[in-house]
């Protein structure tokens, strides 16, 4: 799971959005913390829920959400794992393939660019092809396990 580097000064501009009128992307509000974090824990586990909690600890928050017909559909964090890092991110399984993940990625990276970063790092990527195609991300050599070395594993439930 290597890290990837994104040039924020060369983000794709003017790409037609595939999102329908029923999908909205916006920064999460602090008041939504106890709704969003359990949603993430249920679908993506305790480690990502912990990172999402950290993303709610500043104003403005460092987490964007996607809403589909007013219901939570996905999320994307930044400046959580480390400063300058994008992630974690996830879209509800039933709603994947509709452009939501890409829209969340672009919105988060635009917020990072506005905050003054020239580059973003996508930490410990799973779908490298998704990031390469969406924002031209390139793999950082020798970045596995990177910042995640020696991280505690999630606790087994019931133990
Ligand atoms: C990765 C993820 C966020 C993508 O969300 P999504 O809403 O399905 O993505 P989009 O619909 O915006 O896809 C945009 C493009 O990337 C492609 N793509 C999506 N997921 C992909 C994957 N895992 N591998 C390769 N390509 C992928 C899509 O086919 C689409 O291509 P197209 O423009 O040619 O149609 C989603 O699959 C997810 O939640 N995965 C589980 C959690 C995860 O792995 N998060 C990333 C951790 S680094």
Automatic annotation (TrEMBL):
Domain of life: Bacteria
GO molecular function: acyltransferase activity, transferring groups other than amino-acyl groups
Official protein name in the record: Uncharacterized protein
Biological classification of the source: Bacteria, Pseudomonadati, Pseudomonadota, Alphaproteobacteria, Hyphomicrobiales
